[in-house]
Design a protein that fits this description.
The protein is mainly alpha-helical. Helix content is 60%, strand content 4%. The chain folds into two domains: 1-33; 39-109, no CATH class. This is Sentan.
Length: 111
């Protein structure tokens, strides 16, 4: 499989894209590289992606009730699959509860 960075570099419109545009394009590419032929993501694959591609955001969240609720939902009804919109909502939800978000907020933006 082609690395995400190389796939991202091949998108001409993003050649001069903003950091935010590239971030969302990366999320879309990660999603697209993992979907089934119907363009959806199984819940098992979603959990795997979270553990491999989003591990620093979910690290330490295991005891939080909201995190447990989200992961439980992925364990139930395995035949249901996530579309891109659901996947992005999941990422945003996990980001908002993440301890890493506070660290990000504390990053100095000036010298």
């Amino acid at each position: 499989s082609i690395p995400i960075a190389k796939q991202l570099a091949s998108i001409k419109a993003l050649g001069k894209g903003s950091d935010l545009e590239k971030a969302f394009a990366t999320a879309a590419l990660v999603y697209n590289n993992s979907v089934d032929p119907e363009g959806k993501l199984s819940k098992a694959e979603t959990k795997s992606l979270l553990q491999t591609q989003f591990r620093h955001f979910i690290q330490g969240q295991e005891n939080k009730p909201k995190y447990q609720e989200i992961i439980s939902a992925l364990d139930e009804e395995l035949e249901n699959k996530l579309d891109f919109e659901d996947f992005m909502i999941l990422l945003v939800s996990l980001t908002l509860m993440s301890d890493l978000l506070q660290e990000i907020k504390n990053v100095k933006t000036t010298k």
